[in-house]
């Protein structure tokens, strides 16, 4: 019987929903609305507060003086309908239904004479929440209306004629480099399987230099790699660098016959067939 | 070659920047010994604003500084340069964004309390990815929920100089005061809802 | 509201486009029934070119059409807008560089093995573009990985005559030497590398 009372209140000109352009003027008690239409309806609301606000505004009621029983019944009908149609109703809608029912029952209690008891109208908290939500619903609309980039404002950007743009790369301090290296070494030491050996830097540098010298050439005579002017130490370093490079598959030493001149070349310059052989 | 006027440099920089430039960014274009006063730069910007009065572009002031943009009057034509339509944002996203803008710093839970529904992770992700919103800290309660606030990019996007430029929030009317007044004049509650009157005694327990 | 003049629309479109616009692209901004003649559009562009004679921008005719660009005269100032943006190098980049310096010639795989993480292509690209590092050959193993070494420019930049001027590895590995000597850094080292902070002798505090 509660439903009957409520549906009488629903006979207003304002549609309770617009489904694909067609207004729905009455609540569909006989379920003549296809389920997907109600899904659309449900999608149109941002939650139970939004639905309640809609129900209130639709009847030009003041939030501050909601006829709670009426609104509760209307709300329940929607919720029941959704449930009957097995629509995926968010739990929040049910929580609100419970809250409304509770307020409704409290409203029915005789008002106690002493004013200080219970602290006023049981609707107060709901009204506070509705008002608060309504403010931000409005704020969202206002925000949406603000002229904004991409839709209303288009920033300009003219180009720069070629040749002027010079991206200065960041400065690096040698100390930063060393700190970084120390970081790697410390980490590498945590994995005991990795070992960064103590190694003469001159050897490393010479390895790069030897490679540089051999680049783009075919065979170079081994002895041509050495510069006697560097003295004994220099020659030894070059010799070690060559051995190291040979060992690590970068260089290739070739001697056609015993005592013939030794030649050296970068293995990368080998023929395709050699690559296959190595692979 | 004489050095070009300050105004020419400011104009070219603003037009080339592709986004707002602050006074400091403009000043940084000059070597220290040639650096103009701040007032001179603002003067140049003001002059340009006047020059642009009958042009297709204008200089707007936003949080990030001065931004040259297409005048709204011609924007509909210019917008056709780009194929994609301007993105539209859902009510859920806009409501969440509004709550963060007006109530910052705010937690997700607090947003959900006001909206009455859960805030989807997607919305938070979109807002964060657009760099409109970021985590500025954590509330010191169990769970340490993240506190969200809006960014300068948010202000720039919506053409605001500061949060103060946001449209004012609607006033809240105090329900307690109003209700008490109204109730005094009203008929007893049970008269208004006879249909459910029978529930009364039971509910009292 | 009357429709804005053709010139305003053309101006705004050219400035906003961020690249050259062809005549056809400009014409496409108008609905068919309002579309101006080609001659009208070229006329508007010519007028704008005259207007810009004493401005910070100009309209250049390029193969792709018309492009608004910063006048060369002021370009050196405006170009500094992007100077500021060169970010500091990442720790990953510095580690990679230091490994190339100390372990050259070295392959990317070897660097990754020591660092325990992949070396991004960007890092290698940045180091190569800066001409601090180059490929000096390939190791003749499957995949023929490139061997990297440092360059003359690298030595020059860091004021070294040769790699021998770099502190030996042993010293770098010893935190005490590093901290007391070359590395009297503003930031305490353990702040940057909290993971290895424990290695620092207590006496140093």
TrEMBL record, chains B, C:
Protein name per the record: Segregation and condensation protein B
| SUPFAM superfamilies assigned to the protein according to its UniProt record, in alphabetical order | Winged helix' DNA-binding domain
One Pfam family here: SMC_ScpB
Please give the superkingdom of this protein's source. Answer: Bacteria
Listed Gene3D superfamilies: Winged helix-like DNA-binding domain superfamily/Winged helix DNA-binding domain (1.10.10.10)
Sorted keywords for this record are: Cell cycle, Cell division, Chromosome partition, Cytoplasm
Q: Which organism is it from?
A: Imhoffiella purpurea
Q: Which GO terms describe its biological process?
A: cell division; chromosome separation
- Keyword Cell division attributed: yes
Entries under InterPro entries matching the protein? ScpB_csome_segregation, WH-like_DNA-bd_sf, WH_DNA-bd_sf
């Amino acid at each position: 019987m509660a439903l009957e009372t409520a549906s009488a209140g629903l006979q207003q000109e304002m549609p309770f929903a617009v489904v694909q352009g067609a207004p729905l003027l009455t609540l569909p008690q006989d379920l003549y609305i296809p389920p997907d239409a109600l899904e659309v309806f449900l999608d149109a609301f941002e939650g139970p507060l939004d639905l309640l606000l809609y129900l209130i505004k639709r009847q030009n009621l003041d939030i501050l003086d909601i006829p709670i029983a009426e609104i509760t019944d209307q709300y329940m009908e929607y919720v029941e309908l959704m449930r009957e149609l097995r629509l995926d109703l968010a739990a929040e809608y049910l929580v609100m239904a419970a809250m409304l029912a509770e307020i409704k029952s409290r409203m029915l209690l005789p008002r106690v004479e002493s004013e200080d008891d219970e602290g006023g109208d049981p609707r107060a908290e709901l009204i506070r929440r509705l008002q608060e939500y309504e403010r931000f619903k409005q704020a969202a609309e206002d925000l949406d209306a603000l002229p904004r980039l991409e839709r209303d404002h288009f920033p300009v950007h003219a180009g720069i004629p070629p040749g002027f743009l010079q991206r200065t790369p960041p400065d690096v301090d040698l100390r930063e480099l060393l700190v970084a290296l120390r970081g790697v070494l410390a980490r590498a030491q945590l994995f005991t399987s990795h070992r960064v050996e103590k190694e003469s830097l001159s050897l490393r540098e010479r390895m790069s230099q030897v490679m540089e010298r051999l680049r783009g050439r075919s065979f170079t005579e081994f002895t041509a790699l050495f510069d006697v002017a560097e003295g004994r130490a220099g020659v030894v370093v070059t010799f070690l660098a060559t051995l190291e490079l040979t060992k690590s598959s970068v260089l290739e030493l070739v001697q056609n016959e015993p005592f013939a001149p030794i030649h050296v070349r970068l293995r990368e310059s080998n023929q395709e067939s050699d690559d296959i052989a190595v692979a | 070659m004489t050095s070009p006027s300050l105004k020419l440099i400011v104009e070219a920089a603003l037009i080339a920047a592709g986004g707002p430039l602050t006074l400091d960014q403009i000043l940084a274009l000059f070597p220290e010994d040639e650096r103009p006063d701040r007032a001179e730069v603002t003067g140049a910007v003001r002059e340009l604003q006047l020059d642009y009065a009958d042009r297709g572009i204008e200089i707007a002031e936003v949080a990030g500084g001065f931004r040259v943009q297409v005048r709204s009057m011609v924007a509909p034509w210019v917008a056709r340069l780009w194929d994609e339509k301007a993105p539209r944002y859902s009510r859920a996203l806009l409501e969440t964004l509004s709550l963060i803008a007006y109530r910052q710093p705010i937690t997700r839970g607090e947003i959900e309390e006001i909206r009455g529904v859960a805030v989807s992770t997607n919305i938070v992700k979109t807002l964060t990815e657009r760099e409109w919103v970021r985590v500025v800290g954590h509330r010191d309660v169990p769970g340490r929920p993240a506190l969200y606030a809006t960014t300068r990019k948010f202000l720039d996007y919506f053409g605001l100089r500061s949060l103060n430029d946001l449209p004012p929030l609607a006033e809240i009317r105090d329900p307690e005061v109003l209700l008490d007044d109204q109730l005094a004049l009203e008929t007893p509650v049970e008269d208004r809802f006879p249909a459910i009157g029978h529930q009364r005694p039971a509910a009292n327990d």
